[in-house]
Design brief:
The structure holds 2 protein chains of 2 kinds. Chain A is mainly α. Chain A has 6 helices and no strands. Helices cover about 75% and strands about 0% of the residues of chain A. In chain A, helix 1 packs across helix 3 and helix 2 runs antiparallel to helix 3. Chain A starts with a helix and ends in a 7-residue tail after the last helix. In chain B, the strands form 2 sheets. Chain B has a 6-stranded antiparallel beta barrel. The longest helix of chain B is centred in the N-terminal third of the chain and has 78 residues. The radius of gyration of chain B is 44 Å and the shape is rod-shaped. In chain B, about 30% of the residues are buried. Classes of the chains: A mainly alpha, B alpha+beta. At the A-B interface, helix 1, helix 5 and helix 6 of A face strand 1 of B.
Chain lengths: ~170, ~270
């Protein structure tokens, strides 16, 4: 898929995550649309394309966030790489991988951002962040992954290009 | 001589005679057994036929009714949808009206403040931070550090970053936010800080000071980051141990920070950094 399409598409995803997703929160818990997009695309097209999505999407996301610029991009790229790694080694099934990574990836994503925030001198509580925020978010992410993966699988079939064009 | 008309006449005469006889017998009641017998045979058939006819008539009527009911139902559904949409719109206007009234009231009560209203257009995508994005930016006179309030002089937070047409606001319950505060009733001072779980806590209240659940917490103005006397929230619980130097209080924010729609940025307050 061309980057000319990817960047505006991920910008739209970031806007949806900041403007629409909060309204779909359940008991204050929100799903993470960009994270799910990156995981799903990594499963479909491999770690490299997933990482490119993570980089572009993370930077746009950071524009809307209080986290230091690049924190989300870094966290999303790590998740994309791990997804690619898991696909090649741990999990052979393409069916189970998106859901497994939606759960694990949430903790990795939050963990990386926590590390960045901590390095930047911001007060963080790892226990609260992982148990009270990442855990319910992971559950919500697994549920929403059904729709996200189906959508991106459809996009993947429609575009059907083997490599990302620069 | 033609015999045909003659025999026909006889047939007619007989038939008329039989008819008249039948009438006479019927009138005198002599024909009743025969009538009963005939009705015994014909009655059920008639009822069946009548039933069929009735059913078909009812069916036709039912079809007509269904068609009419369907059309009526569609009309009512359209009307219902229109009314529901109108109702939602009016409820939205009512809610907005309440918010704007509160903001206007605050503006009237605090004539010294110059304020810019801004709509909340987004929330921080990370659950670890408490930021919002509002629809006013540098071009509207917004600068980093400016205090942000909701109606009724309730503190929301402060401007963290400014873009030409939007701004990022750090909410008062963000883990990196701290505000010098005092207890309205006892004038005890402390520091209200956001917690990692998004709640508010007032720390560094001296042990001998009186703080009780229900007390109102205001900005003290110390430090020069916020104007004084903005409402931060209300004490819900006090943590006090005699072995410690300070006590702390859990605060419920004065405004529902998760459901902000419109905020006011105080543009003529210059924070001391």
């Amino acid at each position: 898929m061309s980057l000319y399409f990817v960047v505006p598409f991920l910008a739209l995803v970031a806007i949806l995550q900041t403007a629409l997703v909060p309204a779909l929160g359940v008991g204050g818990v929100r799903f993470e649309l960009m994270l799910l997009m990156v995981i799903a695309w990594s499963v479909r097209r491999g770690a490299v394309e997933g990482a490119v999505w993570g980089f572009c999407g993370g930077l746009v996301l950071d524009l809307f966030s209080g986290v230091p610029m690049g924190a989300s991009a870094l966290a999303l790229m790590v998740v994309a790489m791990l997804t690619g790694l898991a696909q090649g080694t741990l999990v052979r099934s393409r069916v189970a991988l998106p859901w497994l990574m939606a759960a694990l990836g949430t903790f990795v994503y939050h963990g990386v951002i926590l590390i960045v925030l901590s390095i930047m001198g911001r007060p963080v509580d790892v226990g609260v962040a992982l148990v009270r925020q990442a855990l319910p978010t992971a559950v919500y992410n697994v549920v929403v992954m059904i729709a996200v993966y189906s959508f991106l699988a459809w996009v993947d079939r429609r575009t059907g290009e083997p490599e990302l064009r620069w | 001589m033609n015999p045909r008309p003659r025999s026909s006449s006889w047939v007619l005469v007989i038939l008329v005679g039989l008819t008249l006889l039948g009438l006479a017998l019927h009138e005198t009641g002599q024909l009743k057994p025969v009538e009963d017998l005939l009705m015994l045979v014909v009655g059920p058939v008639q009822r069946s036929v009548a039933g069929l006819v009735g059913s078909s008539t009812d069916l036709a009527q039912a079809f007509r009714d269904v068609r009419e009911l369907r059309a009526e139902n569609e009309r009512l559904e359209d009307a219902n949808n229109a009314l529901a949409a109108e109702n939602i719109r009016l409820r939205e206007i009512e809610a907005e009206n309440v918010t704007l009234r509160e903001l206007l009231q605050f503006k009237r009560n605090a004539p010294n403040y110059k304020m810019t209203a801004a709509e909340v257009v987004g929330r921080d995508p990370s659950a670890l931070l408490q930021y919002i994005i509002v629809s006013a930016g540098e071009l509207d006179g917004i600068q980093p550090g400016m205090p942000v309030v909701a109606g009724g002089s309730r503190l929301v937070g402060r401007v963290a970053r400014v873009y030409p047409r939007t701004s990022k606001i750090q909410l008062v319950n963000d883990a990196a936010s701290s505000v010098n505060a005092l207890v309205e009733s006892s004038r005890a001072t402390g520091l209200v800080r956001g917690q990692p779980d998004g709640t508010l806590k007032m720390d560094f209240i001296r042990l001998e000071e009186k703080v009780n659940p229900g007390d109102i917490i205001l900005t003290s103005g110390l430090g020069g980051n916020f104007p004084r006397a903005l409402i931060i929230g209300q004490v819900t619980e006090v943590d006090k141990r005699d072995i410690e130097l300070f006590q702390s209080a859990h605060i419920r924010p004065a405004v529902n920070l998760a459901q902000l729609e419109i905020v006011l940025v105080i543009t003529n307050f210059e924070p001391i950094e």
